[in-house]
Amino acid sequence: MKYGVLTFSYNNVTSFRDALEKRGFYSVNLGDYMQTLAARNLYRALGIAEHDIIEIDRDSISSYSGDKVALLMNGAFFGWSFPIPQDIVPVFVGFRTDGPVVSNHLDFFRRHQPVGCRDVETTNLFRACGVEAFTSGCLTMTFQDRTRQPTKRTVFVIFGSGAGAFPAEALTYMPEELARDTEFVFQRKVVHNHPLTALDMMNAEKYAKRLLEDYRERALLVVTPLHHAATPCLSSGIPVILCRKRDHGRFSYLREFMPVYTSPSFSQVDWFAGPIRVDTIRAELVKTARLALEEAARRSS
Fold it and tell me: Could you give the 3-state DSSP secondary structure of residue 134?
């Protein structure tokens, strides 16, 4: 039995193809690769050997043919990823998708229910279609606490583009003592191929890993609109403030234990609230994933 981690070539993302043709480059969201890192981290914690781990591209998953593999379906999935081949045993933890995917593949999801979803919005989609589902949260909440506090005061403002652009208005409320230690990080990587090559995907994962290491080593505070900047930092024991231009259903799970600030609520941000303890959440998520992987191994034997 092999165990899969998702990678992301963006093979079917036509907007990336169009941007490459127009400008000669585009950028990819390194939050996707934070999910890859989280899956690898979980496998290490569960004692799964490196040689039993294989990479599977989310964006060409429907053409996979190879060893029988239990695949952590921790990520956002779209219509082009289906049908899932027989050689893949899906492990539904941290899964997100849209209504048409659910309704078009009801028999598949019913065979593999209950479906562990990243957020409440996705859970409700499944339940409305008669599929058993629960909200697991994202595997990026399973990183261990960092072992030491930073020696320098660095406030990371981590942002992306589009819906992940940072609302500049929020910074007008940041206390001066924090503002002078601020460092801005664009959590995306410029690339020049579409789809990404195997080397591109490896480099994207390496870049995401280095960013996460930097956050864990130096962050006094993280201020971000990005789900996959917030969650790995929360799990690492770093104080996180979520500030977005607009709220979104992707954050429906996180809202259960932390605020998501949007305009005009930036004046209400508690800049010195400290870290949110997620030990219980982390332990429960690791247990859920472990049991689901054990069940996948049992089904494939």
Answer: strand
